[in-house]
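Submission checklist for the structure archive. All mandatory fields must be present; incomplete records are returned to the submitter.

[x] Identifier: Bacillithiol system redox-active protein YtxJ
[x] Organism: Nonlabens mediterrranea
[x] Residue count: 136
[x] Sequence attached
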Amino acid sequence: MGLFDKLFKSQRDIAKDEIQEGLPWQMLESEDQLNNLIVNSKRVPKVIFKHSTRCGISRMVLKNFEAGYSLKDEDASFYLLDLLNHRELSNTIASKLNVMHQSPQIIVIDNEEIIHTDSHHGIDIKRVEQLIKKDN
């Protein structure tokens, strides 16, 4: 994407452009959606990836995370939170789940509880997959 494109694209469009095909991301954009995913984590684990489109480290960690993905769609649901557009929602997550805000950050929720959280270079899709497969 060229500089001209970046100037005229919204942060949401940039975040969507950074997502690779294959990993079934859903955009996390509201507190209602957050509440629903927490409740629905009783059925299937939920993974939240907090991503800043202006951060090179966040972009690199996201790409590495996506490159290692091998779960089936029914094993877990994946949510991407664009921090530039939804910082208040990130604050709500921190408060509601009692987890310190970081970026990039991964949060895995199962049975309405956090079973894993990590940030920066500690984010590892293989660790997330192990936790999810162990639970299923």
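[x] Structure attached
Curator remark: The mean pLDDT is 87. The domain at 10-135 is CATH 3.40.30.10 (Glutaredoxin).
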